[in-house]
Request: fold
Amino acid sequence: MTDNNNTSITLAVREVSPEVAVISIGGEVDMLTAPELREAVDRAIDSCRALVLDLNAVTFLGSAGLAVLVETSHEANRRGVPLRLVASSRTVCRPLEVTGLTEVLSTYGSLDEAVAAAV
Amino acid sequence: MTDNNNTSITLAVREVSPEVAVISIGGEVDMLTAPELREAVDRAIDSCRALVLDLNAVTFLGSAGLAVLVETSHEANRRGVPLRLVASSRTVCRPLEVTGLTEVLSTYGSLDEAVAAAV
Amino acid sequence: MSGTGPDVTTSHPRIEVTVSENQSSPEIEVRIAARPDHLSVLRAVAADLAMRADFDLDAISDLKMAVDEACATLISRANSPEDQLVCGFAVEADQIHFTAHAPTSSPAAPSRESFGWRVLSSLTDSANTWVAPGDDGVPVLRVDLVKKRLGSVGQ
Amino acid sequence: MSGTGPDVTTSHPRIEVTVSENQSSPEIEVRIAARPDHLSVLRAVAADLAMRADFDLDAISDLKMAVDEACATLISRANSPEDQLVCGFAVEADQIHFTAHAPTSSPAAPSRESFGWRVLSSLTDSANTWVAPGDDGVPVLRVDLVKKRLGSVGQ
Ligand SMILES: Nc1ncnc2c1ncn2[C@@H]1O[C@H](COP(=O)(O)OP(=O)(O)O)[C@@H](O)[C@H]1O
Ligand SMILES: Nc1ncnc2c1ncn2[C@@H]1O[C@H](COP(=O)(O)OP(=O)(O)O)[C@@H](O)[C@H]1O
Reply:
């Protein structure tokens, strides 16, 4: 995580149980910051058995961010790594619903539920 | 209070004990909305023994709003009506401090304290 | 839908759009260098206007997303980050009308089949984009969006 | 204070200010009709920029208030609500530089002794205002503010 949390997104990566990685994402995920998210996710997916993306502190989710989620989902499928999203705020749920992605991605209301499902 | 609370401020006037009026103010108090506040305050001060202005839901306080507070304070002094402000958010305290008005106006951290002091 | 504003749901620009572009400047015009780090200020403007126009939270979110998407497209197709992106916001009776343009390096408008454009269309009540030569003959990409306060989108 | 930006603490405009006004447009320019209902959008822009430039919460609040005060003055001294108020925001190394101008009905600049101007000066690291004839000879009121990320204000 960086001090500079206004000019970019914040990314906190941790392992909640063996090989279950949780990335907590904060801030605005747009054209500017999506590559940073992409990189963190690509790194995590290389070394975990299950991946949880906690989107609850995301304050904007644009199509560049949605594309990262879709591509991560494809990559996770290829590798057989379960991918779970934590999404409960309107800010995050609205873009997922409008684009029909709630049908495709596994979303949970809380981190606990997502982690339980991922294990 | 009005439905239209985005294009203007919200003003809720009530009597918490006999002749102690509380005006709870919400939204942005600027050049556009200060006259509305002024009017509500003038009306209340005509028929109360003590006046509390709860500023905690104010999201912007510009100099037009500060001027209303200063003029209300003068008017309240003239009439011998105690005036108490509820101000605890940074959004409200910062402008009061920067302009030195915390020295002149009686501010309280909570509505309960302000009402207790006003009675 | 009362529809007092321009209706630009067709895929080719109609007279109303051109008129609206050329008439006395929109109420609010924002000019920025065509750089991704300025997107957030455009979202902030869109959100503030929609909030004050009494849009509900979903409609505010939709407009922010649509403006972001439109401007991200304009920025990614500009010639250089020094190009100027010009955005106009007009708050009309029952809708917000957003227009934007920037010089472009591609003579063709963005595909309407792309993910980004499909999202943008689904978020607004009307969306249009086209390329036209600018004053100096350089191609200019334009986007025109209408978001109604009580639209048919996602209801 | 390192002070790489223009220093306009004197009460008369200095060369730097004029240069900065005339040089290639500021990064972000916002043009609105000179009406009080547009003040909130300017505050939203100021807040977004200051936040992204890592200003602390007090400094963000100060900049919002200073921009609001400057523009309220320009609006109240404009000839009509149809006049255009033009605001420029430049995010520089350690400060935000704000400029604004609008046609004015009063040939004299606002008094520096007024409550509004005293507040504005106390909120910024540098504040200046003056009237100069515009392109068409009509008097134009200008305001120029500098707010440093780590200023001496209210610390
Ligand atoms: N239904 C969808 N939901 C979310 N993202 C999608 C969807 N379809 C495509 N994408 C993502 O959007 C990106 C662009 O898709 P595409 O349809 O080729 O449009 P474009 O022309 O904008 O690139 C791709 O990286 C893809 O992962
Ligand atoms: N120290 C102060 N704090 C808050 N408001 C003040 C203060 N001094 C003056 N005002 C208010 O600001 C308004 C304008 O004051 P003034 O100094 O005459 O400036 P202006 O020339 O802007 O009218 C007055 O209505 C007054 O109530």
User: Anything to note?
Assistant: The longest helix of chain C spans residues 57-76. Residues 8-148 of chain C form a domain with the Heat Shock Protein 90 fold (CATH 3.30.565.10). Residues B 66-67, 70-71, 99, 101; D 111, 114-116 surround adenosine-5'-diphosphate (ligand 2) (CB under 6 Å). The radius of gyration of chain C is 14 Å.
